[in-house]
Structures are given as structure tokens and as C-alpha cells.
Amino acid sequence: MSDRDNELERQFELRSKQLFDQRTAALDAATRSRLTRARYRALEELAPAARRGWRWSLVPAGAAAATALVAWLVVSQTPPTADTGLQVAQLTDLEILLSEEDIEMLDEELDFYGWLEEQPEFAGADDSVG
Amino acid sequence: MRLALSIAEDETGLEREEALDSSAAIEAFLREVETRAYRIVLLHIRDRDEAFDVVQDAMIRLVRRYAQRPSAEWRPLFYRILQNRIRDVQRRRIVRARVLSFFGGVASEDEGDPLVAAPAPPSDGPLEQVTAGDAMAALEQALLLLPARQREAFTLRNFEGLDVGQTATAMNCTAGSVKTHYSRAVHRLRDLLKDHGEEHWNE
Predict the structure, then answer these.
(1) CB-closest option in A24, A46, A49 to B36
(2) Complex prediction ipTM
């Protein structure tokens, strides 16, 4: 293809694009309004994603509820026993799970819980399991 | 626990901000592309109501399926959806024409090509007519004489300004095919418009 042909082809492409852009820019108001409504309709599809963000705020409450449910199931599924030490231990676990205390507090008072575990009441509970 | 909740709240806030940013970005993209997309669809299917339906459907599908994808991917994906919907409309017309023909409709040599039989879009008003004039009308008529794939390549590359790779994604073909279709389209259009006085059209 000669340079002249190349130049004509390039001019043709530019002119085509220019005509199309002119035609698009001259779109009437009613058509533009209809396209705007179509866009808003499409953007409604994003609403579920926005609501998903709102739902994430419920995760901590949901986690607490799930923990409580699991704890309740653990306690309720255990066969009844006369050993009150075990029951006390389970209830203590449940209280810890449901407590509003900071997790950091458990680290700080780890020694206390170590000592608590060595007490006869809890040792008896451990022996009765299994 | 308070620290954990605080982090969770921060993350929730960030997610909300990201969702808002994404929402604003995709709205800006749709606003920027919608008029040209409508014009391109109208060129292919020649019916205003159907063109609106196609554009709206493409917008909805893009938002629903690809809003979370990188914004650089939206344009070729949007036009790919658009081209698929255009083909759907054209296929439905062909089937409808065949059914009508089977039940005694009037046969003609153009019945296999729904674009030939489709009504021209109503005028957009005197301002638009004066602005675009006969040159654009001649170009539109010439485009209708091209094979569908050449027309797709030309409208996407020239009118919408997609590069070869984006056009290939939109047309679901290779970059080489895009180049071939586009080159043939340009040559054919120039030939056709010569017959319609390209020397005047091109000025």
C-alpha cells in the first residue's frame, strides 16, 4: 500500500470516528434520560454488596451467639453425672466463654488459672472423665 | 476484645469505603460509555427499544457479574456482553422470520438478513440531522452491508476506540482475527463510500 493510500485510510478512520462522535454528542435529551434510568437500574445490582457491608457489622454478635450455642450443646449433650465438680467446671468454662471480659485478661491471670486447675475440686472432675 | 472489635469495625468501614469507591467507579464507567454503546447497538439492530434493552441488559450483567473485577477489564467485558446480546437479538429475528415464512409470510430475497428488513431508527431530531448530515447516514448504510464480524470489529475499534487486545476480548476471537476483520472492513467501507461519492463524504 502506498503512502498516499495509507494517508487516505487514516483520514477515513479519523472522519468515521469524528462523525460517530458528533452523532453521539447530538443525542436528544429524552434518549439520554432513558439511558440514565437504565444506568440507575443497573447500579441497583450493587445494593446487595452494600448490604453485605452492613451485615459484616453483625459478625461479632453472631460469633458470640454461635459460641453460646456450642457451649450449651456441649453441656447438654454430656451424660448426667453425680460429680458436681465436673458440672462446676463445665459451667465455669461456659461463663468464661460468655463473659464480656477482655481476652488479654486471661493471659495476665494465667497463673491464677493454673493454680485453680490444681485445686482438688477440679482435679476430681478431671479424674472422673473417661 | 475491645481491640478485636475495633479492628473489625475498621475493616467494616474500609469495606464500606471500598464498596462506595467501586460503586462510584462503575457508575462513572457506565455514564461514560452508555451513549456510544447505545449508538453502536442501534447501528447493528436498527430498533431503538431493542437497543435500549440490549444496553440496559449489558449494564446489569456487567454490574452483577464483574463489578468486583479490575476497572481496566470493564470496557472489553461490557462490549463482549453487548456483542453477545446483539447476536441474540439477530438470531431471534432470523428465527421469527423463518417461522413467519413457514406459516405463509411473504418471502423475499432479503428475508435471511434481518438487518435489511429492520426498520430504520426514528429520527433523533433536526439538530442531530444537521450535525451529522448525510455523511453519517451513508456510513451507517455502508456498515449494514458488511459481514457482522467486520461490522463488530469496525465499530469497536474505530467508534469505541478499543485496542486490538480489548476488541479481541469483546469479540471472543484472536488479535489476528480482529486485525483481519478490521482491515477488510475499512477497505470495504471505503469502496462502498466511493460509490456514494467518498470524495465528498471524506471532506
Answers:
(1) A24
(2) 0.75
